[in-house]
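ok here's the first one, seq then struct tokens
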Amino acid sequence: MKQIRVLKKNLYPWTRELHLYFGLFISPFILVFAVSTILFNHTFKPWDKSEVQSAQVSSLVIPADVKGGTEGIEPAKQILRQVNVSGEIGFIRHQPEQNRLIIPVSKPGRRITIDVDLSNRTATIERKRTDIWSTLFYLHKSPGPHNAKMSGNWIYTRIWDLLVDGVVYLILFLSVSGIYLWAVIKAERKVGLILLGAGGVSFLLIVFAIVA
């Protein structure tokens, strides 16, 4: 019994500190997801500016051939290295009748389309700058479930993916530790029970509305 009391005594301050500091760590991520979710739900962007603010088109010669055929993601990576473009490759569209490759590339604040003429070994690159709200949308959806075999082909997308997974696990920890901290503080139990019950009823109503 004494060991249990010592464990409880040590557990509370550690849980409280971790709850506080983990909450502070993930707060910027929560802010990004919260704001972008509101914009998604209401299909609304503040100040309603055009999504694409400006575009620059440039043409340059690719100094090397695409090796290994045009299938898969490797040819696209070769081309990105040759034209000095970085970002997440969305997909690769091969147009064999014209002997061309179309490669859209995304990164926060940028949309880049590379149109490769394989016969002439040239690439036309269109760069578009997007507004801050479109950048939030990109971060919210990235890397996304679409085209799973290709998703996460940019190193920063993979890092963002790991960070988002970490935020989800920390939210689970904050939920469990929050319930524990509430249960330990006797003075807050009555109010906590009311709020916990209200949250539970709201959740059950949502589930009922979905499955009914």
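and now the second one, same deal
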Amino acid sequence: MGNLKQSILAGLFSTITIGILTLLTYKTDFGIFIIASFGSSMVLLFGYPESPFAQPKNVFFGHLLTAIVGMFFLHFIPLPLFILIPLAVGFGVGLMILFNVTHPPAGGNPIIVIIGGVSVEYLVSPVISGSIIIIIFAIIFNRLILKKKYPS
């Protein structure tokens, strides 16, 4: 029965967190707060918070690092997309592992950045601002509601 409760609460908090990011993005003039890879982050933050991949350091720096890698490849490496995208993903994954900030959902950020052709401002909003918001919600959910030690 505990698994049912956790799954319901994880689904509920994922809905609330992504809902807040969506409202901020579409119903305010504050900017963009949501990216596709944040949906995958919900699985780890609310379903498996004890995972090393779900820790705030990994969430924040994993998303930031891979978005920067995507930007670097987009703006400085003049190759066709079918070569650029896999290289950027590979470098992003490799750097997350090297710097011990692996967050699997962030592996998709170079794809999002390159296909979207985003500007440097994208690093602040949605990557940094959105990551901070989802980390805050994960701390509230895991510490206050589930009474888990998070971050661990």
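notes on #2: The chain is about 70% helix and 0% strand. Residues 2-145 form one domain.
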